[in-house]
Amino acid sequence: MILAVLHAKGGVGKTTLALHIAAGFATQSGQSARVLVVDADPQGSARDWAAARTQAPLFPVIGLDRPTLHRELPALARDYTHTIIDGPPRVAALTRSALVVANLVLIPVQPSPYDVWACAEMVTLVKEATALTENLKAVFMVNRKIAQTAIGREVREALAQYALPVLRTTIAQRVAFAEAAATGRTVLETEPHGRAAQEITALVHEILEEYA
What we know:
Layout: E1 2-5, H1 14-28, E2 35-39, H2 45-52, E3 61-63, H3 69-77, E4 82-86, H4 93-101, E5 104-109, H5 113-132, E6 137-142, H6 151-159, H7 175-181, H8 187-190, H9 195-211
Parallel strand pairs: 1-4, 1-5, 2-3, 2-4, 5-6
Helix pairs in contact: 1-9, 3-4
């Protein structure tokens, strides 16, 4: 599986999701799981996260932030069961390249009208890529939801206009994610029984059950 975490808008939590999904695949898919994270963001946040880590790596993180991604990645991904692409913060040739090579595109959406409106451009790109890649699937997921508010439900209703499925699992805005990132770890390691880890576990299970 090649899963790309993409959005036309920056600041929606792509890197955090990409790294946590990769960690979930690495720890929940059995000993046969071989996971690769591809940092396709020129800002290099996933690479910074890996550099901050002092523990043994859960998975390798490589930089491939160039529009030839779709030509270079297949040969690299052959050695892995799961490849996660952390996409760039805006629509560019890099985004299109990731769409061409991915099997599944995860589009994180914060519960905000601005984020919902920004999805229109991403949906258009997905439709264009589908014409080139018949097996491409794309899904929305609500990310950085404010706990105990109705806005998470409201954003799901707003996304219905785009005719792409929305994952059942939502991820809340939690300090635990930032605290884990500071040391190059994930909440699955720092707070394995916490709510953040439970949400990531549910997200990974849903992806594996519905799209693997």
